[in-house]
Amino acid sequence: MDFLRPASWEEALAAKAEYPTAVPIAGGTDIMVEINFDHRRPEYLLDLNRIELLREWEVGEEVTELGASVPYTQIMENLRGTLPGLALASHTVASPQIRNRGGVGGNLGCASPAGDSHPALLAAGCSVEVESVRGSRLVPIDEFYTGVKRNALAADELIKSVHIKNATGPQQYSKVGTRNAMVIAVCGFGLALHPDTRTVRTGIASAAPTPIRAKAAEEFLNAALEEGGFWENGKVITPSIAKQFAALASAACNPIDDVRGTAKYRRHAVGILARRQLVWTWEQYRGTTGRPLEGAA
Amino acid sequence: MRVNFTVNGRQQEADDVWEGESLLYVLRERLGLPGSKNACEQGECGSCTVRLDGVPVCSCLVAAGQVEGRDVVTVEGLADFAKQRAEHGHGGACAAGGGCGTKGVSTDEAKRWSARPGDSRTGEGVELSNIQQAFIDAGAVQCGFCTPGLLVQADELLERNADPSDQDIREALSGNLCRCTGYEKILDAVRLAAARQGEAL
Amino acid sequence: MANTRTTPSGTPTNVTQKHTRGGIGESTLRPDGTLKVTGEFAYSSDMWHEDMLWGQTLRSTVAHAEIVSIDVSEALAMPGVYSVLTYDDLPAEMKNYGLEIQDTPVLANGRVRHHGEPVALVAADHPETARRAAAKIKIDYRELPLVTDEASALAADAPLVHEGRDDHHAGHVPHPNIVHRQPIIRGNVEEARKRADVIVEGEYTFGMQDQAFLGPESGLAVPGEDGGVDLYVATQWLHSDLKQIAPVLGLPEEKVRMTLSGVGGAFGGREDISMQIHACLLALATNKPVKIVYNRFESFFGHVHRHPAKLHYEHGATKDGKLTHMKCRIVLDGGAYASASPAVVGNASSLSVGPYVLDDVDIEAIALYTNNPPCGAMRGFGAVQACFAYEAQMDKLAAKLGMDPVEFRQLNAMEMGTVMPTGQVVDSPAPVAELLRRVKARPLPPERQWESAGEGADVRALPGGLSNTTHGEGVVRGVGYAVGIKNVGFSEGFDDYSTARVRLEVINGEPVAMVHTAMAEVGQGGVTVHAQIARTELGVTQVTIHPADTQVGSAGSTSASRQTYMTGGAVKNTCEHVREALLEMGRRKNGSYHPAWAHAELLLEGGKVVTDGGEVLADIADILEDEAIDLELEFRHRPTVPFDLKTGQGDGHVQYTFAAHRAVVEVDTELGLVKVVELATAQDVGKALNMLSVVGQIQGGTTQGLGVAVMEEIIVDPKTAKVRNPSFTDYLIPTILDTPTIPVDVLELADPNAPYGLRGLGEAPTLSSTPAVLAAIRQATGLELNKTPIRPEALTGTL
């Protein structure tokens, strides 16, 4: 095993080009477990800790560019207003110590369906900026996950940052685990309201081979909100809409039975979370837009 | 490979480090600082928590090569770290000496171990940080294997939040498993340390 | 440093000046506390030696197979590898070990019987070299049919897990795949059943729990110049290890010198041998010190677990709420090797009735040999599984009778004088009804505490916690009660004793007592109370606790809630003899100066000899001068007898201990997630030698019971008998956010037979905690829930 310690982004890209099998290590919260437990012996470890730009973020007018190694703790503390869904998801990641080290780059790089940041990224809408010595490109998040623990990266590419659309409405993230802290998702669900475009987006973790969106559920809800004039009148979402949205979210899952939970439970739980989050986000939307509450009747 | 970094204020050099070694292994097996504990080696228990450039992390998940040129504080240096913080407003280098060991526990030392007269209230002449003394006084130590990680983590909590609520304490310590105490006395210890810290101000 | 004066731990107001401080009854602090908070305490994994090698164990990847061939040549050829050992390299005639039945091979002999069984050992200069070498050992397995449950164990064509058994249970078991069977018959169930107005039956399943102590198995073996070996290890019982280690090394016991290193928790999981023999074998083979440290993955294979169990119960009661009869059958899965299975069967059967008066019972408990992971000792030891089932039965009966579940239990609660199903009379306080009254009388915690934080829901106080799954939706509260009975000490005629050596001498002008035992301090605080006992008995302030080793006689196991009773009792006993010797010395030297030497009751207090009237006769230091009194004595509890193999009759237990719990839970009924809000407990401890430690033990035991109620289970694939979740990622134990406040109410009703009247206490809280949580979840959900741990699937119909 060789340990590569590039001092700059350019050096890192050069190293990755020279050693395409090199495994990037930033927070180490996935790769070190695999090394400690003898599950993996990469030929090269490519340390990204010394590269400052990966730990920086910039909040723009419409988009926040988030460095791949910005620790979850920083996201929770600094980006709660701009990226509320991702901040909530960050808060559910493992433990404080892990949140101090891990960032979205690791989640995206591993592309485990159980990663907590995926649903929030899918729901918010974002592009992943990947770069190699050949140049950089933006991969839309919907095209990023290509299979079980596989992503759209070429062998010589590294994840530089994520360009995430700033929230224009409420966002939520929840995950189900059998412990009240420090637990890997049995399943996770994220929902973002986008009042600017009058759309909603969703994300689901650990209930399909890759992180996915519940597209049929989104389309249904977009149409229902439009038809009912909900965006303007701020009325309470009817139980039948919530129920149908939940059912479609549940139907979007393609889960397996494993040691953490049954497929049946995962489908069930995603439906419950979808319904609850719709209520939470919508109530917040109504509250923040100052709509009169008589619509509740 | 060779790794140079600062531990508890002292410059350290580790040689012939295998590239897959963790910071935890280097501390325990190469630098003679076995205080950070190896309970799960997968970031699920917090027993190996150290401060890396001030930030609490699981040292089992930091590759040794990643700490080149950086600053680490372990439980062995916690009392000095806390003292420096109290005196200079920030944690920092422990003075010469401190808890910076040079090798592991020899069998002679193990044979010599004995519970000395008295209990731990006097600290047996050792200067302890507020959180360390509170853990002893509150009965938060049983087998003690989780204790070093909890101390580093709890000390950092009180550094950030001088008056944490019970839920704040629970959240901050939710990455540190304890199998002996049922946590109640650990909560007591952190409350006690916070109260004593408040009195001291 | 040895002469540092002790600062008193709080000044009690009701004692006179001369009273010795830091004696029993005070919450003195741990003598190892400072070392443990500074990181200096030497745990077994912290040991280091010049020139040390690292040992690695290669374990079977299949559960049941013939080993067709092993090829170690490639591993041996690797640079940095010093030794590779297999069964063929074992040096002695004896190649097996075991607590009671020596059925466990040191290294597999042509056959593996469970997933993760040790097959080969490697010693190398770096752990990674050792791992790589182990990976290069080629083993050709031919898989054999599996025995995984009662049906496959007892089937007509069942493979025998152990052929040609000649152990002392082999003669009475109905099938060679049954380790031990214990029936208990008393009264006449058929007749008593006729008096029952209601009958309830239940089939209960208890999952496999892991001790999950935080300090993985580890130790260091150093070869001696005499051909022997020094072993530094974390264990629960040095002398039991020694008896198993020496024969397979082909060494006399005196050439295996064991020292207890720091122990990172135990809970039963260190009663069996793990890496001890392997490290010694490698050290002797290489003539170099060898350290073995399991990682968490290996730890799950490195020790036995709590027996999973299937329990069938039938209870009857009259319409006014009196139990008529009980019939039960308990099937424990012992896995591939016996470990403590026979004793677990004894406990499960003899305590299957719970703390209730029942004169007509028909009980059967068995432990199976299977190809599942071996199971043995864990806190609660057979009584835990039974308590889960009989307490569920009590709730069912109460519900069927329309009675309050606590009142129903109180109506049937045993008390002093009750006859157990074994015929043994409970001859010391058994305040079962009172314990229940106390937990019930406690005010309930406020509802909807997640709202009290002000704006929004504080998810940390809700089911799901930080995962943000509910803001109150679907959350229903439930309250449940349970009570349990556990035995203390080793039962069934076992010669259970502890040894204590105490030395009294003058150091720097002050009398100092040194207490030397082989007791394994695993965190429970034995070292704290030993010092307290010595202070009380010898009237000295300064007490040194000698490291535990095999240079002193056995202290028995740190298990069965026995150490304060047994080794504490031994320290008390030896101190009493030291005191007598000192007084004799005093009479010899000073007797002529004062008539009180001959006539008065003399006590040792505050470093002085005083009369019971308070008159000071002499300083202890002045009597001793430069002499030392040094005694080593054994202490035994009252004898027990084995249970009759057909009727189960016999005074098999030493002492009984009781605890009750009330659990308050909040269940997200839609997602099936549980938050335990409070877990109140009451327990009789006879006499609290150190209340701080007592409460710590009770809270810790309670939390382990909570864990197995809602999350903890080793999942074994029934098709392959392989463990599916050997890690802390998938074997979950409670975090601080899963653990509620645990108010503890301690009773002190003295047991006249026990030292200071104390009652062993470490295990009882683990019994009733689990069924109390289950009862609370049942109340919240209305579901029957006959299996623990509860999974979200079971609460949401999504299994």
From TrEMBL, chain A:
The keyword Cell membrane does not apply. Its EC number is 1.17.1.5. SUPFAM superfamilies: CO dehydrogenase flavoprotein C-terminal domain-like, FAD-binding/transporter-associated domain-like. It holds the Pfam family FAD_binding_5. It comes from the Bacteria. It is an enzyme of class 1 (oxidoreductase). SMART domains: CO_deh_flav_C. GO terms for molecular function: FAD binding; nicotinate dehydrogenase activity. InterPro entries: CO_DH_flav_C (IPR005107), CO_DH_flav_C_dom_sf (IPR036683), Diverse_Substr_Oxidored (IPR051312), FAD-bd_PCMH (IPR016166), FAD-bd_PCMH-like_sf (IPR036318), FAD-bd_PCMH_sub1 (IPR016167), FAD-bd_PCMH_sub2 (IPR016169), Mopterin_DH_FAD-bd (IPR002346). Keywords: FAD, Flavoprotein, Oxidoreductase. This is Nicotinate dehydrogenase FAD-subunit.
TrEMBL record, chain B:
Keywords: 2Fe-2S, Iron, Iron-sulfur, Metal-binding, Oxidoreductase. One of its GO terms (molecular function) is nicotinate dehydrogenase activity. It is an enzyme of class 1 (oxidoreductase). Its EC number is 1.17.1.5. InterPro entries: 2Fe-2S-bd, 2Fe-2S-bd_dom_sf, 2Fe-2S_ferredoxin-like_sf, 2Fe-2S_ferredoxin-type, 2Fe2S_fd_BS, Beta-grasp_dom_sf, Diverse_Oxidoreductases. PANTHER family: OXIDOREDUCTASE WITH IRON-SULFUR SUBUNIT, XANTHINE DEHYDROGENASE IRON-SULFUR-BINDING SUBUNIT XDHC-RELATED. This is Nicotinate dehydrogenase small FeS subunit.
Automatic annotation (TrEMBL), chain C:
It comes from the Bacteria. Its EC number is 1.17.1.4. Residues 1-17 have a biased composition (Polar residues). SUPFAM superfamilies: CO dehydrogenase molybdoprotein N-domain-like (SSF54665), Molybdenum cofactor-binding domain (SSF56003). GO terms for molecular function: iron ion binding; xanthine dehydrogenase activity. Pfam families: Ald_Xan_dh_C (PF01315), MoCoBD_1 (PF02738), MoCoBD_2 (PF20256). The keyword Cell inner membrane does not apply. SMART domains: Ald_Xan_dh_C (SM01008). Coiled coil: none annotated. InterPro entries: Ald_Oxase/Xan_DH_a/b (IPR000674), Ald_Oxase/Xan_DH_a/b_sf (IPR036856), Ald_Oxase/xanthine_DH-like (IPR016208), AldOxase/xan_DH_MoCoBD1 (IPR008274), AldOxase/xan_DH_MoCoBD2 (IPR046867), AldOxase/xan_DH_Mopterin-bd_sf (IPR037165), Xanthine_dehydrogenase_dsu (IPR017609). The keyword Isomerase does not apply. Residues 1-31 are annotated as: Disordered. Keywords: Oxidoreductase. This is Putative xanthine dehydrogenase subunit D. The lineage of its organism: Bacteria, Bacillati, Actinomycetota, Actinomycetes, Kitasatosporales. The gene is pucD1.
